[in-house]
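Please fill in the sequence for the structure shown.

STRUCTURE ENCODING:
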């Protein structure tokens, strides 16, 4: 439980790369503690879906932790780090265009999610965005200078939901997006 005396005493940066690693000394519940935190940039996530065809734009790319675990590439919504001066909505729209080639006119917010608040500063701003065939204005596939090797597919929402029901490995952001869309628009999954 958070008490009024909880406070951070000091932070020491142990590593400062794309991800920072911090040693944090604090007082929690009246007791001194030392924790290691991952300083991870926050980002936006958007599941782009076509309500007329009942499909979603789904990405797959090799992720080292998934590869290391021996699992196949996971289905992912478009996502990326917030850039300076950019709102989460702007990031979602930009990333969707870069990764899927789809120009969204707007996005519907789902929420701000802390990915692992016990050890990481990362937050994801989650959105849904509807599109039609005419909104595909580029090929997508990611940005060359970001070394993104993105496999882009359109998959039926019914098939994506079956993957949820089976319970195999799934990217948390994809699960959140699919659950939110199914709650808001269940007819798209039939």
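FILLED IN BY: designer on duty
SEQUENCE:
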């Amino acid at each position: 439980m958070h008490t009024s005396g909880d406070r951070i005493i000091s932070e020491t940066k142990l590593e400062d790369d794309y991800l920072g690693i911090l040693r944090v000394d604090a007082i929690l519940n009246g007791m001194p503690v030392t924790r290691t935190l991952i300083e991870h940039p926050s980002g936006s996530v958007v599941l782009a879906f076509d309500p007329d065809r009942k499909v979603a734009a789904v990405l797959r790319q090799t992720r080292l932790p998934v590869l290391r675990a021996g699992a196949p590439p996971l289905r992912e919504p478009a996502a990326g780090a917030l850039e300076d001066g950019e709102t989460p909505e702007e990031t979602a729209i930009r990333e969707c265009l870069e990764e899927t080639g789809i120009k969204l006119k707007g996005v519907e917010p789902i929420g701000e999610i802390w990915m692992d608040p016990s050890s990481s500063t990362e937050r994801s701003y989650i959105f849904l965005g509807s599109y039609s065939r005419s909104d595909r204005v580029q090929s997508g596939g990611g940005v060359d200078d970001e070394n993104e090797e993105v496999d882009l597919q359109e998959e039926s929402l019914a098939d994506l939901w079956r993957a949820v029901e089976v319970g195999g490995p799934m990217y948390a952001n994809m699960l959140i997006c699919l659950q939110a869309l199914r709650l808001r628009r269940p007819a798209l999954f039939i």
